[in-house]
Design brief:
The structure holds 2 protein chains of 2 kinds. By secondary structure, chain A is of the alpha+beta class. Helices cover 22% and strands 26% of the residues of chain A. The longest helix of chain A has 11 residues, at 30-40. In chain A, 38% of the residues are buried. Helices cover 29% and strands 36% of the residues of chain B. Chain B has one domain: Aldehyde Oxidoreductase, domain 3, CATH 3.90.1170.40. The two termini of chain B are 31 Å apart. In chain B, strand 3 and strand 4 (40-49) form a beta hairpin. In chain B, strands 3, 4, 6, 8 and 9 form a 5-stranded antiparallel beta sheet that branches. Chain B has a 4-stranded mixed beta sheet with strand order 1-5-7-2, with helices on both faces. In chain B, helix 2 runs antiparallel to helix 3. The chains are: A alpha+beta, B alpha+beta. Chains A and B meet through helix 1 and strand 4 of A and strand 4, helix 2, helix 3 and strand 8 of B.
Chain lengths: 81, 152
Amino acid sequence: MKLPVRLYARARDLAGADTVQIELEEGATIAMLRSALMEQCPQLQPVGSSLLFAVGTDYAAETQPLNAESQVTCFPPVSGG
Amino acid sequence: MISLTHEEIDYHGLTESVRSDSCGAVLLFLGTVREMTGGRRTVALDYDAFPEMARAKMQELEDEARRRWPVHEVAIVHRLGRLELGDISVALAVSCPHRAECYEAGRWLIDTLKITVPVWKKENWDDGATEWVHPGVEAGTAPPAAEPGTDS
């Protein structure tokens, strides 16, 4: 499946795009998405291990499985306030 | 009451919105744009958010604060976009019957907001360089733009 991953903040700047399309096996987990993202967007390396993932509006654990409908967002640690 | 705004925050109105005859304590926290950070001078901060999730997480903060403390009312507004020195980036008002629980709830709300709500700030240093603030990540400073003011 091809999953659109929305990016924010420095991740978006490094990728040079709001959204990247990541090729994944059906049922892949967030951990597998992280690896695929690093492989397909090596320019994200400076923030790689710190990237957080959300599905919908909730943080997603590394073990969470994904499907073609998953709305995935990815961003480095937050700094509001 | 939870919101994101690109406008100046009316913190007086926000404070009034949580006041009640049942409460003997009202606490207001303002986060403001500071000039100096680690010896460097800030000109402005650009705030960005994942708005749907930011609102959802702020609402969860309010709900959790209500579970933990006898909170009467909570109001949190986070501002987005370009903020100049001294501008208010976040305002949080909370009311409780007594001050001890009000301080605890207010402190927990702002501390937790800074860790969980997907909002980011980008430093605009006085030498023209810019830098996203991502706690725990090694800084990546972008050099001054060739034509200042043309970046998005």
